[in-house]
Amino acid sequence: MRAFARAVLPALMRIAEVATAVLLFAMMMLTFADVVGRYVFSAPIFGAAEMVQFLLAMTIFAGLCLINARDEHITVELFEAQLDRVIPHTLRRIVIQLFSVGVMAIIAYQLYDYAVDAEKICTRTIVLEWPLAVVSFTVAGLSLVSLIMQVLGLLLARERHGAEDLGASL
């Protein structure tokens, strides 16, 4: 399984990096063009705010693929000293990683469920009247890819961080 992760994860990482960069650049250019159009030509881009919202959601979930694969979440260690006395570090890392994978699976499922509902009832955006299912399925798909990349990243974590951090590898 680690050989599979070693073969697939770098390609997925590169795709996610490029997708995140393209989405962020598109959002930046759309915002720039909208501001210039609004203040220089008194002609803003119709529906630009709604388009930026779509791009933002997709950028966040494309970036989440990278964060999950690299296990670079923001962490707050408020109870680290107390937990060190009660729960061994390795066991705590395993529990945290299992919890993280479980939560990501729930997020992916809920987003997919929302997308299916949006498609069934033909939900549309307010301004542009675009089908909401398109962005909903995209975000649900990105969250599923994020979950897969997280698991693949955990399989390779031991190689990245060294054998002393056994808890980083399930």
Q: Would you kindly provide a written description of the structure presented here, covering whatever features stand out?
A:
By secondary structure, the protein is mostly helical. The protein has one domain (2-168). 76% of the residues lie in helices and 0% in strands. It contains five helices and no strands. It has helices at residues 2-39, 48-70, 80-86, 89-120, 132-161. α1 crosses α5 and α4 packs antiparallel against α5 (132-161). The longest helix has 38 residues, at 2-39. The chain is elongated, with a radius of gyration of 20 Å. Residues 163-170 have low confidence and may be disordered.
Mind sketching the topology for me?
Blueprint: H1 2-39, H2 48-70, H3 80-86, H4 89-120, H5 132-161
